[in-house]
Design a protein that fits this description.
alpha/beta, GMP Synthetase, Chain A, domain 3, seven-stranded mixed sheet, binds ligand 6R9, nucleotide-binding, metal ion binding, ATP binding
Length: 645
């Protein structure tokens, strides 16, 4: 018997919700049994098409072929802007709230449309053409949305690099996508400090000879270096024409590339296309958040992540919603900042990550008491499993039991939300992402690939395509196939473990591969290891995750030094700085442990399972270590672990 708690959706929220329980069942069944008709209706409802599609879907997981609405013509920026002008031209499209609480500004749909058209002309003037890749390295300012929409308007493919990534990480992404244009800001603002974005671009571009133009947004006004490739955003915009007809794009033309980490090798450029992505982002936005016209919606995710793409920019704007962009952090100037912003802008729908909730919960309830959160109607969570304690705090204290929590499970590769409660339809269980969205058929499989039935636990796969699914990995369709479709033939492999309970609710248990989730940021252990071994003194490194109260997972690095080199606090600092330089501050190891050798199998594979257990201090339960080449190594590592904590 499970003792888990179940919450009904608060009555006043359930009343009038887009999707009721009966409707969920009816629509879900139709989305599976009559899939083409179902998706045709949704595509017509959420998106304006210049020309209808010839075929709704043409998908085969056996060859990783995914096509939706082929033959259809549309433009994403037209759908997010132009079509709203007649009725909503003067409605605010973007509310911007600065890092400094005294700074904010708004852009109406008409103003945003004009800026996007002007900037699209700027891009054209500098030679950007349809299908060219444009790198965007901007903080959370409206110009990030302008840049995305301007690319979409002319058919250029944007590749946003999170502004917290280092110059080296930026360089790798510019080179991989062969971007010829970079859009950045002079500096970003974060918790009262500045981030040297243009300087990072300058460093990155030393190894990027193909980049022709860098368009620089003046954000802080800080001093930066200038060169022949650089132009000012505001100067170019002022001279550009505000008239730029949207390019008619094929449904399957690429819209953007977004790099994400996997278990092996370097980050992959996940490729999303135009029609299916927009239909799916717009539809999930309306149904999952139960968005109603006039509401103020705030997703705290940075545009550098998929959540920022689908649910800060494209999903809301396609629905004509007002979306809030926040450049700062939850704890600056004080840990009540989120709630002050909610109060100031009368936010109705608030979508954030468990790591932020845990961090604020740890600061105590006093920070809530001085703010009025009465405008809130729906709360959301994304990025990692939300532990029930954090869920309960979010529900009882932040939302005062008035607001349902939508715990939305999805990935960069899925484009939009796949498993989620629906307001008005789903009773909530803290810690469960609950049930599949329309058209989504999950299957939990065991390690042999057998599909498990009923109440079970295993690896989460999805058995049929949905419009928002990624189409490829930029530059390597083979890698796309191998990563997602080869482990369990005929199924999309998510990389996550999951349990399904007797009510058919899904509980995501975390990654089953070598991917870490640190404060909701995805990182491959291999990437961090590659950075560590760049140091001359390091012979070998193994990185694992371990439970961390605020971040969800912390980064634990085992490092073996080259013979003759002794560990020191100084060396530890050098290694930390090296990882920050190679990847960025988000990848900073929390703990480095010197390991004389690493536990390996006879065939030379590092036994990460054991290293994970030791990092988590679960040393009584190491499992079978008989396959180790030298079981004595484990004892030594345990001893070192004990000495340090
Ligand atoms: C949207 C996003 C994807 C990974 C995913 C899973 C974890 C995301 C979750 C969740 C449990 C949720 N994840 N949402 N785990 N419950 N509601 O975060 O994309 O950055 O690609 O990360 O995040 O492990 O596989 P991305």
């Amino acid at each position: 018997m499970s003792l888990e708690k179940v919450y009904d959706v608060p009555l006043e929220v359930a009343a009038g919700a887009h999707i009721t329980e009966a409707l969920y069942r009816e629509m879900y069944e139709r989305s599976i049994k009559d899939s083409d008709k179902f998706w045709s209706e949704q595509a017509e409802r959420f998106v304006d098409w210049f020309k209808p599609w010839d075929k709704v879907q043409d998908c085969d997981f056996g060859t990783a072929r995914i096509r939706w609405f082929e033959g259809g013509k549309l433009n994403v920026s037209y759908n997010c802007l132009d079509r709203h002008l007649a009725e909503k031209g003067d409605q605010v499209a973007i509310i911007w709230e600065g890092d400094d609480p005294d700074l904010d500004r708004t852009l109406t749909f008409r103003e945003l449309h004009e800026q996007v058209c002007r900037f699209a002309n700027v891009l054209k003037k500098h030679g950007v053409e349809k299908s060219d890749r444009v790198c965007i390295y901007l903080p959370m300012i409206p110009e990030a949305a302008v840049a995305m929409l301007a690319c979409a308007r002319i058919g250029a493919v944007h590749s946003i690099v999170f502004a917290g990534f280092s110059a080296d990480a930026l360089r790798d992404r510019i080179l991989d996508a062969d971007c010829r244009y970079v859009i950045c800001a002079d500096e970003g603002n974060r918790g009262g400090r500045t981030v040297p974005l243009k300087t990072n671009v300058d460093t990155a571009l030393q190894s990027c000879p193909n980049v022709k133009t860098v368009i620089v947004v003046r954000n802080t006004g800080g001093t930066i270096d200038w060169d022949a490739r650089s132009v000012w955003y505001h100067e170019e915009l002022a001279e550009a024409s505000p008239d730029c007809p949207p390019e008619s794009m094929d449904a399957e033309d690429p819209l953007f590339i977004l790099y994400t980490s996997g278990s092996t090798g370097k980050p992959k450029g996940v490729l999303h296309s135009t029609g299916g992505y927009l239909v799916y982002a717009a539809m999930t936005f309306q149904y999952v958040f139960d968005y109603r016209p006039g509401e103020i919606y705030w997703c705290t995710a940075d545009v550098g992540w998929i959540t920022g793409h689908s649910y800060t920019v494209y999903g809301p704007l396609c629905n004509g919603a007002t979306t809030l962009m926040f450049e700062g952090i939850p704890t600056y100037p004080a840990p009540d900042r989120f709630w002050r912003v909610v109060e100031k802008h009368r936010v109705n729908i608030f979508y954030t990550a468990p790591t932020a909730i845990r961090a604020l919960m740890a600061q105590g309830d006093n920070w809530l008491e001085t703010t009025d959160r009465g405008s809130l109607r729906v709360l959301g969570s994304v990025g990692e499993p939300i532990n029930p304690e954090a869920w309960e705090w979010y529900y009882h204290h932040v939302g005062r039991e008035r607001c349902p929590i939508v715990d939305t499970w999805w990935q960069t590769e899925t484009g939009g939300i796949l498993i989620t409660p629906l307001i008005g339809a789903t009773r909530l269980k803290p810690g469960s992402a609950t049930r599949p969205f329309f058209g989504i058929v999950p299957a939990i499989v065991d390690s042999q690939g057998n599909v498990l039935e009923g109440d079970c636990e295993g690896v989460l796969t999805i058995t049929r395509s949905w419009p928002g699914q990624a189409r490829s990995v930029f530059g390597s369709h083979q890698r796309f196939f191998e990563t997602y479709f080869s482990a369990y033939p005929g199924k999309y492999f998510t990389g996550d473990g999951a349990r399904r309970d007797a009510d058919g609710y899904y509980w995501i248990t975390g990654r089953v591969d070598d991917v870490l989730n640190v404060s909701g940021h995805r990182m491959g252990t291999a990437e961090i290891e590659s950075a560590l071994v760049l140091h001359d003194s390091v012979a070998e490194a193994a990185v694992v995750g371990y439970p961390h109260n605020i971040k969800g997972q912390g980064i634990y690095a085992y490092v073996t030094l080259v013979a003759g080199i002794s560990p020191s606090a100084e060396l530890e600092q050098e290694l930390i700085q090296l990882v920050r330089k190679e990847i960025g501050p988000i990848a900073t190891p929390d703990l480095i442990q010197w390991a004389p050798t690493l536990p390996k199998t006879r065939s030379g594979k590092i036994m990460r399972r054991i290293l994970r257990k030791i990092a988590a201090n679960e040393i009584r339960d190491l499992g079978d270590i008989s396959t180790l080449a030298d079981p004595g190594v484990v004892e030594e590592i345990i001893q070192n672990r004990a000495n340090r904590s």
